[in-house]
């Protein structure tokens, strides 16, 4: 599997580290224990298109949001996450 | 109180043995470690990329690379190292961290990497063949021309790789973390041995 880094271009999987689901959002401070438990521990086991966080640690050290089909490994989109350099991409 | 005597040595001091290595005959690969350089990491602070670019242009006379490229100036090389960040490689104390700090005050964070990396120059007719065994990126001149750079991994080690000005043939430069330098050096020697290697070290940047 290869991922096209928006900064570096196409690179092999070995340069990346997988974090996991990009969907969960940190709940508000007063959201309660169940919401925090859900955010920290509970994940959907998606068979299909999924939004994931990947880290290009072996390259430009940018965090990326990758849209990947977990059944076929087909990658349909790669975007930088918010942070340094992200604003420049796609402009 | 204990007396400290700092013995400044290259991270490749032990591993580097000047002379021929591997196949006999004409050396297909030249491996030269370059010692004594100033290397400063410049990283734009959040939202200050434009200011950093402006400061770099004023200091170096050329725009700092915003894509994976290495840009030569009259007395430095600016090498892309990631989004909104680049390395300043120079010699002779012209662009030390003390010299650059006022230039980028308020726009970028600087970090002195001069003694944190080893710099290896790889050239020769078979240089690309040897590198191809270690790197997964395409180094063919059509896609990796003079001035191309990459933040990538070789042998599971993060490196900054770029193609500088040719000297009769392609010259690749490699910056690697000092503590990983010996390991990558030995791996590179293994990869290049079949082509014959000429090993050297240089006191200064060419």
UniProtKB/TrEMBL annotation, chain A:
<dbReference type="Pfam" id="PF04267">
    <property type="entry name" value="SoxD"/>
</dbReference>
<protein>
    <submittedName>
        <fullName>Sarcosine oxidase subunit delta</fullName>
    </submittedName>
</protein>
<dbReference type="GO" id="GO:0046653">
    <property type="term" value="P:tetrahydrofolate metabolic process"/>
</dbReference>
<dbReference type="InterPro" id="IPR006279">
    <property type="entry name" value="SoxD"/>
</dbReference>
<dbReference type="InterPro" id="IPR038561">
    <property type="entry name" value="SoxD_sf"/>
</dbReference>
<dbReference type="GO" id="GO:0008115">
    <property type="term" value="F:sarcosine oxidase activity"/>
</dbReference>
From TrEMBL, chain B:
<protein>
    <submittedName>
        <fullName>Sarcosine oxidase subunit gamma</fullName>
    </submittedName>
</protein>
<dbReference type="InterPro" id="IPR027266">
    <property type="entry name" value="TrmE/GcvT-like"/>
</dbReference>
<dbReference type="InterPro" id="IPR007375">
    <property type="entry name" value="SoxG"/>
</dbReference>
<dbReference type="Pfam" id="PF04268">
    <property type="entry name" value="SoxG"/>
</dbReference>
């Amino acid at each position: 599997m290869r991922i096209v880094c928006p900064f570096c271009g196409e690179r092999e999987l070995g340069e990346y580290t997988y974090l996991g689901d990009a969907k969960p959002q940190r709940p508000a401070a007063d959201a309660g224990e169940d919401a925090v438990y859900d955010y920290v521990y509970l994940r959907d086991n998606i068979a299909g298109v999924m939004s994931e966080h990947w880290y290009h640690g072996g390259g430009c050290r940018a965090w990326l949001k990758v849209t990947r089909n977990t059944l076929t490994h087909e990658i349909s989109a790669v975007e930088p996450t918010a942070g340094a350099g992200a604003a420049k991409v796609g402009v | 109180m204990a007396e400290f005597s700092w013995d400044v040595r290259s991270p490749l001091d032990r591993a580097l043995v000047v002379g021929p290595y591997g196949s006999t005959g004409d050396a297909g690969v030249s491996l030269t470690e370059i010692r004594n350089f100033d290397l400063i990491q410049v990283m734009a602070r959040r939202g200050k990329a434009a200011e950093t670019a402006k400061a770099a242009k004023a200091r170096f006379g050329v725009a700092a690379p915003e894509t994976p490229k290495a840009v030569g100036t009259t007395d430095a090389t600016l090498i892309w190292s990631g989004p909104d960040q680049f390395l300043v490689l120079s010699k002779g104390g012209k662009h030390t961290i003390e010299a650059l700090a006022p230039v980028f005050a308020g726009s970028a964070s600087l970090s002195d990497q001069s003694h944190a990396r080893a710099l290896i120059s790889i050239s020769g007719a078979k240089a690309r063949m040897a590198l191809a065994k270690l790197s997964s990126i395409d180094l063919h001149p059509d896609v990796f021309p003079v001035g191309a750079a990459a933040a990538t991994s070789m042998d599971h080690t993060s490196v900054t790789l770029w193609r500088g000005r040719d000297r009769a043939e392609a010259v690749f430069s490699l910056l690697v973390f000092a503590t990983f330098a010996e390991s990558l050096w030995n791996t590179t020697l293994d990869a290049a041995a079949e082509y014959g290697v000429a090993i050297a070290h240089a006191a200064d940047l060419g």
